[in-house]
Structures are given as C-alpha cells and as structure tokens.
Design goal:
two-stranded antiparallel ribbon; 135 residues
Length: 135
C-alpha cells in the first residue's frame, strides 16, 4: 500500500501532490457530504468571492464537485488540459478570497490579501509547471 502511494506521488512536486490530495478529498469526502447530507439551510458556496446560501448554494455544488473530480483525474494522469485550467482555478480562488474578505462582515481584508498572495504564488507555480502536464 505504501509503495502504491509512493508510485502515485512520484513525478510531481510536493505542492502539486498536495493539490492532488485536496482534489481527491473534495471529490470523494467533502462534496458528497456537502451535497447529500448538509442541510440546505446551512449550505454555502463561494464563487469569485460572492457567497451563495441555501438552495442557490445547493444548486451550484455539482459544478464544484465536477471541478474537483476533473482536478483529481487531471493530476492523477497529469493531463495536458490541466494547464492552464488548474492555474486559472487556483487564481480565481485567491481573487475570491480577497473579494469575500472585503464584502463579507466576517472577512478581514488583511487576511484576504495574504491568502490572495499565497494562492497567487500557487497559481504561478502551476502555470510554470506546464511541462509536467504531458499525459
């Protein structure tokens, strides 16, 4: 089992394996829970920094699930179409966090700016990793 995990992780930098792991977690653990078990009244989805709640959030969950499933498959097989889409998705997460931190009463703009910078750096790393996506 340990060797199978090592084989699966080989050929990717650590940060890319972390992204792969997040996609797997979101695809097989979190999104099924979010879609099938979380009550509609508690549902929240954020798109480009704008939070949707209730039925609007529930209606957009399948799109998030599809994105993470595509990311799981794309990182697993290192598919060419992952570039530029993975970099763009990571960049929009950073932008979304920045926008959300300024629009939502629970947000803190300084924290949003830091998260934006971190996701921006990750987006640049994915963008520069284009040669890795050869599948």
């Amino acid at each position: 089992m340990v060797q199978a995990i090592r084989d699966l992780a080989s050929g990717r930098p650590l940060w890319m394996n972390a992204m792969f792991a997040v996609c797997l977690y979101m695809t097989f653990v979190y999104m099924p829970f979010d879609l099938f078990w979380k009550p509609v009244a508690e549902d929240q989805e954020v798109w480009l920094g704008f939070m949707l709640t209730g039925w609007w959030a529930k209606a957009t969950e399948p799109l998030h699930w599809a994105i993470y499933a595509a990311g799981s498959y794309g990182f697993w097989k290192m598919k060419r179409w992952m570039h530029p889409w993975a970099a763009l998705y990571v960049a929009q997460i950073g932008i979304g966090m920045l926008v959300w931190s300024m629009l939502d009463e629970r947000g803190t703009p300084v924290v949003g700016a830091v998260v934006f910078a971190l996701f921006g750096a990750l987006a640049v790393a994915v963008w520069r990793a284009r040669p890795s996506f050869d599948g």
